[in-house]
Design goal:
Blueprint lengths: L7 E2 H8 L5 H14 L4 H5 L4 E2 L1 H11 L3
Antiparallel strand pairs: 1-2
Helix pairs in contact: 1-2
Length: about 70
Amino acid sequence: MEQSPKTTGRMELAQRYFPNILPHSAWKKFKSLLEEEPSLCRLSTQRRRTYTPAEVNKIYRYLGEP
């Protein structure tokens, strides 16, 4: 798992997990995955539209890499 040097947009990350559906639908499904995992639940409700490299690594640790 390599550390990304920049932030990652939440829609961009959602589309990595669900590449074959529309961006908004991908976000809704991705958000559901985050809400199901207690350690990631906070990330589904944050007001920022990006994730830091550390947050992306945490998501990868719990959900696996897309």
